[in-house]
Amino acid sequence: MENIDVTVLRALRDWRAAGRQALLVTVVRTWGSSPRPVGSIMALCENGAVVGSVSGGCIEDDLIARYARQGAADALPHSGAPGFAKYGITADEAHRFGLPCGGTLELLFEFDPDPASLAELVRALDSGRLMRRQVRLGDGQVTLTPADAPAELSLDDTQLTNTFGPEYRMLIIGAGQMSEYLATMAQFCGFAVTVCDPREEYRGGWSVPGVQLATDMPDDVVTAFKPDKRSCVIALTHDPKLDDLALLEALGSDAFYIGALGSRRNNAARRQRMIEHFGQTEDSLKPLRGPVGIFIGSKTPPEIAVSVMAEVLAVKNGVTLPRDLDVAHVKDQQGAAAGPPACV
Q1: Domains annotated on the chain, with CATH
Q2: Which one of 19, 148, 196, 211 is most buried, by most CB atoms within 10 A?
């Protein structure tokens, strides 16, 4: 499953290329709580089809009623200057549209965006490029330029600027059962997923569609993957021959998340190996997370995958997790409470 922004822009491109009227809606401001963050987009076709979201659904229903199901051939305005609308200004309206208490959001409408510009943007995103899209508020003119780094949406009196792509990427080392659950969840969260496993007996049963499967040695795959600031690398094999070298390659990259599955003892042994045999130090190993995941009492592969995905998303979103969710810390506390093992 691709990034939701790309999905929205691709659908909008196809509608416009087919000559259909369509609307691009962007969340440009929020006050109080809001269902979707600033920069979120949705596309609405003249036939009522919607891709993407700006709320929990009620605002989408209102937009469909206003712009796509009025029974008029020109229900959607023609191209021209973008328009604005606010939802949730009063408590009654917030309740009507399912907005949280005190929540208000402002939307920008672009009517019949230029199909050629949309096609150019989608091509750039498909090639892994980060793009800046600027919309002139006076007439809806769009300018596309490559961007060096992701940026928050900005809006002034003359233009809207929003940055799109490239997709977040996840490289999983190991094609076991837990990798299937993690890869599936990562795709739903908008990650492009690659799974690497040189062991034929493991990858032979791989069955998650949409995931790229690599068969080379993991350290070579990490090198070819070229992890950047929108990439994460997670080792799940429990095999030092596969995990360790891949993690070493990842530690030399800009990956925002690098982690390995395993017990506290196995992760401590891995760190010791890397220090003794690969010239690593405690400082150089600080980006390496392990045991991966947050503590939710998980025991089964799908539950462990949930905990790992939750930690990846927290790091991606810049959320500092409380220590009570750190797996190693909680296990240490539980071990101390239990006391020394009984003699047998």
Answers
A1: 4-164 (no CATH), 168-333 (3.40.50.720)
A2: 196
